[in-house]
Amino acid sequence: MKKKYILSLAVLLVLSLALAACGGSKQLTMLTGGTGGTYYPLGGQLASIISENTDLEVTASASNASADNISDLASGDADLAFTQTDVMANAVEGVNLFEGSAVDNVLAIGSLYPETIQIVTTANSGITSVEDLAGKRVSVGAPGSGTYVNAQQILEIHGLDIETDIQPQNLSFDESTDGIQDGNIDAAFITAGTPTGSVEGLAATTDISIVPIAQDKIDALIADHPYYAVDTIPADTYTGVSDEITTVAVLAMLAVADTLSDDEVYEITKAIYDNAGDITHDKGKLVTKDTALDGIGVDFHPGAEKYFKEEGLLD
Length: 315
Hints:
The chain is α/β, with parallel strands linked by helices. It has helices spanning 2-23, 39-53, 66-75, 85-93, 146-157, 173-182, 197-203, 215-224, 262-274, 302-310, and strands spanning 26-31, 56-61, 80-84, 106-122, 137-139, 167-169, 187-192, 208-210, 229-233, 245-257. The protein has 2 domains: 26-112 and 252-310, Periplasmic binding protein-like II (D-Maltodextrin-Binding Protein, domain 2); 115-250, Periplasmic binding protein-like II (D-Maltodextrin-Binding Protein, domain 2, 3-Layer(aba) Sandwich).
């Protein structure tokens, strides 16, 4: 009887400790992007790294990406989120998708990797330049996505209006590549790290082409919007695309609601950049503390700022 009593007490003690441990972890939500892009799988790995190296428990969730993610952070519906540096700047300035509704309660943690603007079509579409998109059915990204803003600005530099000079389709990456494969659309703007899963899937079944952007147009785009940078898609990144493609990129970054404490954000920032070598996703090798400040034109959260100052990256 005494042994049973001691055993029962031991079981209860173990359960109590387990419950206490679970109860001690603050639950956070990280918004990523569509399942066919880079944000979603990379976000899952970052959430795991943070959860393993801090007292926080982070869950990564699919979303419509950049602009919607910032709106959800601002409204308190999420804690952390992937976004593009250009969209973050637009949110703070209250321009483009944030016209008249500037955001002042979302801050930066740091940059992650370049996001390449890929204009995808079929090899036999006859579309070989951005100007050839005129009159065509073109996916310009999911509503609320940074891809939409990229498409709008790139088309504008080429003298095309996104609403009147093409037939715009608001599709996710997976919907875009499915649409190209099925012949329902002619081309798609996809802003994501390369190689992008949905584009790889399309290239495996369909002969594809990536439309280049001419250097003079790149120069004009960067002059108007300095958060762009020239970029190239290496030859053979996708099956059947044997030439290097010249295009532009923005940077993926991690943003945070200002409701998180300085200590929490410090631990999150430290966990990510001190353990970036544990990321197995292709983009993991581009996530480094030395490039974490690149392209950030908004305020850092004080917790992130503390980490970068300790690392000698900020004064």
